[in-house]
Amino acid sequence: MAVEAAALLIVLCLFLSIILGASGGAFITDVARNATQFLQAVPPGTLLGVALLLGLYWWFRGRRTN
User: Fold this and answer.
1) Does the structure show a pLDDT above 80 at 65?
2) What domain count does the chain have?
């Protein structure tokens, strides 16, 4: 539950940073800057691998419940 809340907070700060820009405040700007730097530092193959693993997990989980 805490992981989902933290991820939601980061996504919310990114969206607010896009909408409000520099007037969004220091917290929103710092979270958006840190998230952007992290995503730029991670190799594209890693993000693709994580996305594929999550997709397979949800697919298998959906098949198991049906």
Assistant:
1) no
2) 1
Identify the CA nearest to 38 among candidates 12, 14, 2, 4: 14
- For 7-48, write each residue's pLDDT tens digit: 888 888 888 888 888 788 888 888 888 988 988 898 988 988
Residues 29 and 24: their CA atoms lie apart, in Å, by 7
Q: Which pTM was predicted?
A: 0.58
DSSP, collapsed to helix, strand or coil, labels residue 66 as coil
Largest CA distance in the chain: 48
Boundaries of domain holding 60: 2-65
Please give the C-alpha separations between residue 8 and each of 1, 13, 57, 64, in angstroms, as whole numbers. 11, 9, 20, 27
In Å, what is the CA distance from 15 to each residue of 39, 48, 50? 15, 22, 22
